[in-house]
Design brief:
β1 (52-55) and β2 (58-61) form a beta hairpin. The protein folds into three domains: 2-89, Orthogonal Bundle (Arc Repressor Mutant, subunit A); 95-158 and 262-287, D-Maltodextrin-Binding Protein, domain 2; 161-259, D-Maltodextrin-Binding Protein, domain 2. The protein is elongated and about 80 Å long. The chain starts with 6 loop residues before the first helix and ends with a helix. The strands form two sheets. Strands 3, 4, 5, 6, 7, 8, 9, 10 and 11 form a nine-stranded mixed β-sheet that branches. It is of the alpha/beta class. The protein has helices at residues 7-19, 22-29, 33-47, 63-89, 103-121, 169-175, 192-200, 218-226, 240-244, 273-293, and strands at residues 52-55, 58-61, 95-100, 124-129, 142-145, 154-167, 184-188, 210-215, 231-235, 249-250, 256-266.
Length: 297
Amino acid sequence: MMKDLPLTALRVFVVVNQYGSFTKAAHALGITQSAVSRHIAHLEQVFKAPLFLRQGPRIHPSIIGQQLNDNIKDAMMTIELTAQQLAQKHHHHNRLQVRTSTPSLAMTVIVPMLGSYTQQTGVQVDLITSLSAPSMQDSYDVLISRDLHLEGCEHWELLQEELICVGQQELINQVQHLPPAQWPLVTSRSRPDVLTHWSLTYGVSPNQLQVCATYDHLFFAISAAIAGLGLLVVPKVLVLEALENNSLRIAPVDIHPTGACYSAYINHQTQHLDTARHFCRWLKASLKERSTTNTNT
């Protein structure tokens, strides 16, 4: 039996289980759907039993299929990762594609730090922003996101999100004797949840807040706050540099954790696993260092 059991067919079988679809597995593997069907048919001949059952547009493994998948999926992943790592030992990859669904984080935090990373490692980073979840056809090595969650990928927890209220010191001095519901605020359409979360902690409806200007993105609202156009409730990580150079100061109210987390996901199809892991490790350490060294609280 073993001579009739090719590793390629087993790999196809595992990917079909992962995606629950012959079509999606074919896209992920870069082969045709008919080729996927042939590999699965060959395995079913070997095991003399169906490996998948159809349920509407989706498929799910049969009892034998589930047993086979449970026993070989980890071994197949180990083989792939080992092959990638051995190949990378003989080839230093100096370019990384990083995708993010957080343009404000990219503009205010990640991009300013990339020069240091490239200087240390010699690796150039191509940064792509997109609010949508990546498809199987998309080419990228690392995804950085707050609100997207990818299954089956190596996951790095980068930073827990905390909300603070910031503004020019002169404006803070003018309004700090007033209740927060009467503060002049600027906000962004891209993160309406920020102001809602912050206001409800004070028992105030968002409709009662004094919003004097709204911008498409948080990085525009940050610039408005620096210009003194209003106070801004914002994730702390986005204004660390402005706090360090005293362009913004923190208003005398509590810091509020949102429970959200900025995360990095390594594409399981990346050919540059070691470089991607090194980047995630560096980014997590850099964000932690910046957050802990900022003392303007």
